[in-house]
Amino acid sequence: MRSKKSTSGSGEKSAPKHRFTMASLRGTQQPELSKRLFKIIKSENHAIGAYEAAARERVGIAQQLSEWGEATEDESISEVSDKLGVLLAEIAEQEDIYAQQLEEYRGVLKQIRNTESSVQPSRDHKTKVCSTAIVSILHVNQIIGFG
């Protein structure tokens, strides 16, 4: 459990501050299915960022490895480190392409979420109408004596 630093000498704990964002407000107003998609989309965004960061980091590592091999002034080491650097750069490129594909998939999820949000009021209305009809049928059955 994390300890909270007190702002006064009496040891009182301050209430945690919550910052409202458009995303948090959007999440509270969405139907349940859209909320789930919203969370998936948000998680995928973090994953995409991680792949992009990994790709950038891998390019830097590839450059450092090639430079190190060159600095050893040993032709064999320089050649091997250069080839490894090229392989790492290729892996970085593939990670970047994968991140782009994930972004496209995330876009499809957003379209599904938006469609789901737009049809939900119609579903809610239909459910309400059906529930009202069932209640009125039950009420009529009680009056007539079937229930």
Question: Quick recap of the structure?
Answer:
By secondary structure, the protein is mainly alpha-helical.
What fraction, in percent, of the residue positions are helical?
over 70%
Radius of gyration: 29 Å
Morphology call: rod-shaped
Looking at the overall shape, the CATH architecture of one domain is Up-down Bundle
Q: Low-confidence parts lasting 5 or more residues at pLDDT below 50?
A: 1-12
Using the coordinates shown, work out and report the CATH topology of one domain: Substrate Binding Domain Of Dnak, Chain:A, Domain 2
Element string (H = helix, E = strand): HHH
* Proportion of residues in extended strands: under 5%
Distance between the termini: 57 Å
Structure description:
There is one protein chain. The chain has helices spanning 22-29, 32-71, 75-144. The chain is mainly α. The chain has a domain at 34-118: Arfaptin homology (AH) domain/BAR domain (Substrate Binding Domain Of Dnak, Chain:A, Domain 2). The longest helix is centred in the last third of the chain and has 70 residues, at 75-144. It is rod-shaped and about 100 Å long. The model is unreliable at 1-12 (pLDDT under 50).
Tags for this entry?
147 residues; mainly alpha; Substrate Binding Domain Of Dnak, Chain:A, Domain 2
Describe the protein's topology.
Layout: H1 22-29, H2 32-71, H3 75-144
Helix pairs in contact: 2-3
